[in-house]
Amino acid sequence: MAKLLAWLQSPGLYARVNDAFAHMLSRTRDEIEGKAVADIHPDQAAEILSMMERGAEEGLGELSEPIILPVTPAVSLSCRLMCTPQGDHWLMVAEPIYQAGHYSLGNLNDTEQVPRLKTSLDYVISQARLDNEHIALVKLSVERFNWLQETLGEQAAEQVMSDVAERIQVGLRRYDTLYRIRNDRLLIQLRHVGCAEEALRVANRLNELLAYAVRVDRREIHLSTAVGIALAPLQANDAGELMGAVSQALKTAQRSQGAGVRLYDPTRQRKALTVDDFARLIKPDYEQMAIGFRPVYGVSSHRIEVAQLTPLFKGVPCLGSNESLLAPFFEGEGGWQTYLTWLFGQLELPLARLAQHTKFQGVVITLGAEIVELPGFIEFMAQRIHLPKSLRTHVIIEFDAIETRDHEGVLFDIEALGYRIALNRLSDYLPPIQQLKELEPSLLKLDAELVEDMVSNLARRRQLEKIADIAADLDIPLGAEGVQSAGLRMQLTHQGVSYMQGDYFGRLLSSEMLQEQLILENM
Q1: Does the pLDDT at position 321 exceed 70?
Q2: Residue ranges of the PAS domain (predicted)?
Q3: Which residue, 65, 431, 479, 486, could crosslink 445 as a Cys pair with Cβ 3.0–4.6 Å?
């Protein structure tokens, strides 16, 4: 179904646009409405005006020929115009440029089909970004396909691929799409994906559907498949990056004994991005950062009571979850100061709104030792961060527990400024009891590996019990990261964990979505 984007009027002015279209153009509605088409789309203005003129002359009440309209450098829309009966207004609609079902795209080197696929992906990625969702690409390779062709013949090999496609189609949802991109490769586009684990579950289910033998000319052929997965905008910003990422994931799966499912891992596979490249991408462009919040739920209330703050970098997939990674790129005079000023400045408005909810405990900001050790850190926090005292108590600054031995004085100084302290990565190291009593941290957080290992490792489970006992004796809330299942959540609840974080509890939220969710939960 076509989606209405805008109303145009003679002589080529935008009368009204919807919010989604304005967002894709990186403008507000006020900046578009009343403006000429030539001001908004200078390269496509002639084509659009020509369509409008022809429609006025012919009294067209039907959609025009499609216009490819680039709305960003990475995203293009297939748009059409329709003249209203009065002849002085035109509707601009975006047509779905993806196609449900299974159809062949031929070889990826096809000059006509590849741009079509990329344009479709760019459109779907832009919609996923607006809806705060992800799309996933699943690339599947049928191993030993050349052997099938040589042994059974071309026709039998095609029958095998047809059977594979039919099985996969059974496992897809109505809004997923299946493409054949090479003789032995299939590409599956999964829409409305909440997190990586959800995409993995779908890919594993598809792989299981291919576990049964295919019957060809009274012979049973057992297939071996390798599957790669990548997500956008989580791991890629546009179609080109996403297709490259899923290809890398597939190569990793093929190297792992030629079969299995692999999720794209940018920390291992984006080695081509040098430190200098990375620094150029993010160092001067604080405006290109956005803040998201990872929900941290209180066990007793099952509601968001703390939120983990995450700086997000446009154009750099999967980075920003750990601020200590940023320190090397802010070396030199004023770099880290500019960063922290930006960070707290961006935080003030949403924090002021969130603080109105009585049960909301605060926002966690992770600061690594690299930033804490920089010259003048405490003086800077005291003199340059102008966060009202009423809001500072809602800021929980998080340090690695193992660093408290070297930075005890800094932690006390931070508390003296009105902030609260959280200690993270409690596992093999636990600060001395006396130090915990004096510091009185607002939150102790278990290391994610400890949480994962406690299920199967008795020694690790006893270690967690010891930490839980200490937290209970000192009346300090205990939090856990990496909680991926209801069963694990139940076990941690019995261990006395008060807060939990992980994909089980939901995906990254914007400040607006976080506030909406708090209101919906009557907090």
Answers
A1: no
A2: 12-59
A3: 479
Q: What is the number of alpha carbons within 13 Å of residue 279 lying toward its C-beta?
A: 11
Note the pTM of the prediction, 2 decimals.
0.47
What is the sign of the dihedral through the CA atoms of 141, 144, 148 and 154?
positive
Domain ranges of the chain: 3-94, 101-269, 275-520
Average of pLDDT values for 199-208? 84
CB of 421 within 8 A of CB of 441? yes
- pLDDT tens digits, residue range 413-442? 888 899 999 888 887 677 878 878 888 888
As a whole number of angstroms, the distance between CA 356 and CA 351 comes to 9
* Buried-state track 84-104, b at ≥16 Cβ within 10 A, e below 16: eeeeebbbbbbeebbeeebee
DSSP string, 384-412: T----HHHHTTEEEEEEGGGGGT-HHHHH
Q: What class is the 101-269 domain?
A: alpha beta
CATH code linked to domain 3-94: 3.30.450.20
CB-CB contact of 13 with 34 (8 Å):
yes
Q: The tokens of 75 are what?
A: 């995203």
20-39: pLDDT as tens digits? 778 777 788 888 988 888 88
Provide the H-helix boundaries in 295-422: 335-354, 369-372, 377-383, 389-392, 408-416
Q: Taking a C-beta distance cutoff of 8 angstroms, is the pair 230, 137 a contact?
A: yes
